[in-house]
Protein 1
Amino acid sequence: MTHDMTQGDESLLIDAVLNGNREAFQDLVRPYLTMWLKMATAYLSNASDVEDAVQNGLVHCYQHLGSFQARSRFSTWATKIIIRECHRLQQQENCRRVRETPLDTVQPPAEAVEGLVLLSHLLHQTLTESDRQLLEAAVVEGASLQELSARLSASPGSLKTRLWRIRKRLKQILIAAEGDINGPGF
């Protein structure tokens, strides 16, 4: 696709926009609008997102036109801005899809389930009830050392040491269990 506008034409229109001629911006972007819409369609599947990406990108171009340094053509600069806007909208859509996916519909891989069963078994075999409760409160509930200290009537320092020892013991057990699992008999 060829565009009739030269870099000199772009420079004249940019100067006009910077001097307050808003209509000059329309003349500046009009030759490239179809190209930008097609390009945004390649990134985004939703038609309204495509329009939003191009519109938001062009608003950004208009607002920051004074920072355009003419090292490349205006259309190249604007294209990069519109692509960044497409990526931003893609990220928003991906985040929205993740937030809207109910957790009970996500099935964990079989290996993860087996690993959790093994971990649960190892925890019950190797840790005392009080160590399991402390680890659960710290890791699963996210309780701070101060909260744990108040709950268990122990100093934060002693709980920190105890948690470190529990984690160290679990790490050693998991490393040993991994060797057993990956061994020839499994």
Protein 2
Amino acid sequence: MLLGCVSFLFVFFPFKDEVNQIVTTNVRLKQQWTDINLKWNPDDYGGVKQIRIPSDDIWRPDLVLYNNADGDFAIVKYTKVLLEHTGKITWTPPAIFKSYCEIIVTYFPFDQQNCSMKLGTWTYDGTMVVINPESDRPDLSNFMESGEWVMKDYRGWKHWVYYACCPDTPYLDITYHFLMQRLPLYFIVNVIIPCLLFSFLTGFVFYLPTDSGEKMTLSISVLLSLTVFLLVIVELIPSTSSAVPLIGKYMLFTMVFVIASIIITVIVINTHHRSPSTHTMPQWVRKIFIDTIPNIMFFSTMKRPSRDKLDKKIFAEDIDISEISGKQGPVPVNFYSPLTKNPDVKNAIEGIKYIAETMKSDQESSNVRHSLCMIHFLLSYCYIFFFFFFSFSSITQAS
């Protein structure tokens, strides 16, 4: 049985391919073992206690990275080993490992990832070669920090594994786990803040006048902007169905509200340009949006025009036609005697009646338009209220 010692010296640990969930690691894999066949007496060789020889000239444990992601499991062997006169061998080859790491994207970009690297011999079982970690923590003395990730915790464990093919033979491996936290400043400045600004811009669509065509332009512009940012996020995270990032949910939620705002804007503009003579307001619409909702929301100034005012007479009292004609009429025989009427006065009265009816019709049309404006205002107010309420609620829950 051969006893060996393995340790990791980390140099650099960045994510190179987050989309494919591959971690590229630059390490120095320090391995130590003793070969009794390579001992010598320093006195016989001029006091030489250690030499450096090519690694191909001696036996080496066939350590491989089990969770390799690029198909190159072997460690680079084109480096020399340090051989001491006691038979102790120290081999520290450099290696660039590409290992698989499952990325949990739920809290992207405020996420933490737990990645691991599993090392073990490929052909030797635990009865032939025993490997032990030099320490339960890798050496980070030469570690260079990444601009995107920071190492929060790291630890190594030794495992005895029994496989189904060989239930009586143990196999050894050393697994190093690394807990890394993403530095979110880049994504906050370039993704999250623009997203929030575009999202809040959606709520102000209904502050534009109803007859302004810019309402649709603004809504569609915000929708296109959110779509672009959503595509950017899709390019940054793995194509996995295990979880949906909260920022993606928020953007989808905002896009739904933007689409709803476009639909409401179309309805509002359509009703705004309707004529009261061709489209009559349903009674239930008037009951809900003019009589009920304003009272619930304490809009005391939004009162429906009174029907009594619409039916009010043009003249406060009847006029004596004889006084208008300028001619003295015959003395009435009784209370029901007819008055003398001038034909010009008749025409004038008919004209006044026509003007009065026209004014009444215009007043009714104005009241209907005013009612529509009230409904549009209520829809806008309700939309803005619900949008900001759900937006702040989702942000609060995410934080």
